[in-house]
Amino acid sequence: MNPLYILVFVVSRLMYKFLFRWRVHNPENVPATGAAILASNHASYLDPPLVGAGLTRAINYLGRESLFRFPVIGWGMRMVHAVPVDRDGGSASGLKVILERLLAGGAILLFPEGTRTSDGRLQSARSGIGLTVIKSNAPVIPVRLFGTFEAYGRQQILPRIFRRVQVKYGPPIDFTDLRQEAARCSKPRLKQIYQEVADRIMLEIGRLEPHTDKATFP
Predict the structure, then answer these.
(1) CA-to-CA distance for 88 and 62, rounded, in angstroms?
(2) 145: how many CB neighbours lie within 10 A of its CB?
(3) Is pLDDT of 78 > 80?
(4) CB 4: neighbour CB atoms within 10 A?
(5) What phi and psi, each to the nearest 5 degrees, are found at residue 40?
(6) Distance between terminal CA atoms of the chain?
(7) Where are the domains positioned within the chain?
(8) What is the pTM (predicted TM-score) of this model?
(9) How far, CA to CA in Å, does 167 sit from each of 3, 75, 136, 194, 208?
């Protein structure tokens, strides 16, 4: 973590603790080192820093490519390990950078749904995350965020403070079977595999439930 990342990390933890009464569950499911894909539901602008603040390792985030064109904003985004991607997040250059970060042993946060939910419910997954998973050997950790839609949903102008938010990290998902099949299957089947991977990830995210037992604060 560089100094700016550490500053954002500390400020985020303080914000979630005092303004949103956060709870963190099972961060031990995320490897402390090495490549990892964190796949989370997406309901709010609060989501990316919340996922990262619950861990003690640095996380790579996705950022809209156009924002990197502004000198100060672009510099800041690079310092907090943001990866430039196009609006849909599916450009070849964006995928290349994501895979490079994973190959270098980094952890990256992806949102299978592609955009924030408009009603608080989980959405269908897009196949893009399936492509990333198949092209890498990184473990995939499902992450479920609770309360962020109520605290700062996309229809709200300002966040509602003191609404409790939670982040829960699930056990890694095993994609050995589909990765092996993808190495030798036809192109039509490969596209199906990408979507199957995405759907399985959303299924595992949906299985994560909020709970009221003692939370972990790393």
Answers:
(1) 11
(2) 23
(3) no
(4) 14
(5) -125, 150
(6) 16
(7) 3-207
(8) 0.90
(9) 25, 28, 25, 26, 10
CB-CB contact of 46 with 117 (8 Å) = no
Cα angle vertex 135, ends 132, 136, to 5°?
Answer: 85
pLDDT, position 214: 60
Range with the poorest average pLDDT among 63-77, 115-129, 164-178, 179-193: 63-77
Amino acid identity of residue 18, one-letter, is: F
Collapsed DSSP state (helix, strand, coil) of residue 171:
coil
Tokens in use for 47? 């989501």
Token representation of residue 139? 């473990």
Structure tokens at 88: 């849909």
pLDDT, position 166: 96
Q: How many CB atoms lie within 10 A of CB 76?
A: 16
- How far is C-alpha 163 from the geometric centre of its chain's CA atoms? 21
Q: Which amino acid is at 173?
A: I
Q: Concatenated DSSP letters for 80-110?
A: TTEEEE-TTS--HHHHHHHHHHHHTT-EEEE
Task: Quote the tokens at residue 162.
Answer: 């003191």
Do residues 88 and 41 make contact, with C-beta atoms less than 8 angstroms apart?
A: no
Domain 3-207, architecture per CATH:
3-Layer(aba) Sandwich (3.40)
| Residue recorded with tokens 């995405």 | 198
Identify the CA nearest to 27 among candidates 202, 168, 148.
168
